[in-house]
Amino acid sequence: MSPVFYILAAFTVAGGLAAVLLKNTVHCALALTVAFAGLALLFLNLDAQFVGFAQILIYIGAVAILVVFAILLTRGTETPREGVFSRSWLAGLVIAACVFSALGWAVLESARALPHETAVPSVTVHDIGAALLGRYVLPLEIVALLLTSATIGAVIVAMHEKGSAH
Amino acid sequence: MTPVASPLAGYLLLAALLFAIGLAGALTRRNAILVLIGIELMLNAANLNLVAFWRFSPHPEALTGMMFAIFSIAVAAAEAAVGLGLVISIYRHAQTTDLDQMNRMKG
Description:
Mean pLDDT of chain B: 87
Structural class of chain A: mainly alpha
Order of helices and strands of chain A: HHHHHH
Shape of chain B: elongated
Low-confidence stretches of chain A: none
Number of helices of chain B: 3
CATH architecture of the largest domain in chain A: Up-down Bundle
CATH superfamily of the largest domain in chain A: NADH-ubiquinone/plastoquinone oxidoreductase chain 6, subunit NuoJ
Oligomer: heterodimer
CATH class of the largest domain in chain A: Mainly Alpha
Radius of gyration of chain A: 21 Å
Number of strands of chain B: 0
Largest interface: A-B, 85 and 77 residues
CATH topology of the largest domain in chain A: Four Helix Bundle (Hemerythrin (Met), subunit A)
Helix content of chain B: over 70%
Number of strands of chain A: 0
Order of helices and strands of chain B: HHH
Largest sheet of chain B: none
Helix content of chain A: over 70%
Strand content of chain B: under 5%
Distance between the termini of chain A: 58 Å
Number of helices of chain A: 6
């Protein structure tokens, strides 16, 4: 384990914690961007350049902007009087802690059996493109259909309805 | 140094921690948009698992884990668009994004 991994892990976890703990919703969205950037750097650290840059483009460039738009459109910047956490926050926290301890126990128990290749994989964007249009062409087409229908669906769901009180 | 032997175990533990943080956020926040943020964190933790398994697998040239991560990112983008569209639509009807007040369908 290199020190780079520990620095990036601390950066990402701090961003994620801030994203779910901060009171102001806009600050949460900005902390989420920090967590996405940390994950992109972790992907680059794992020699997955294409996924790392796709993460920057899609998550930081599109999803984070979309979240900020949604917050501003719904007046989410006002902190509610009753606090930002729901009534059943303790149960949620216990469930999350149980899930983490189960996952961590499974990882630590099987740490000896995990694959341990040290050779850096030499995968170029050319290989990824050839695989996407060769072996994975059917999933690619399905994802294209899904993205088209999701875009149309999101517009229709968020569109003003005729005759609604406004 | 920690007792973690393989670097893959470190990435898996980090992904588990991020997943738990996202789950805690999705289960404890009142604001619907913050719940979606928690879900995005969980999806990203799963992607980190996929890419880490691809990197340390014996056959990275098969590209399976990386392809899974790429398709997962595409599906997550579609999910974010539809989810935020739903939140805006609900806000227009109920004038709130507080999930504790969205109890009209409660039995």
